[in-house]
Amino acid sequence: RDDVESRGLGDVYKRQEEFGYVLSGVITITLGSQTYKAKKGDSFYFVPSCTHFITSKTGAVILWVSSPPSF
Question: Can you tell me the distance from the alpha carbon of 9 to that of 21, in angstroms, rounded to the nearest whole number?
Fold first, then answer.
């Protein structure tokens, strides 16, 4: 679980899969040059072979799963 504020979450990982579930709020997911919106109850999945970034103008809480895990 992560609290997404205006700081956003972003990075590039070459050997992972990413899954997220929006617990509250609304987020913007940027994958390369494409952007997508996700709201409470929405989920998303991607293989992060490109630059990715998640932001929220109003704050959001997401459940974030990456495999293999990176800490």
Answer: 14
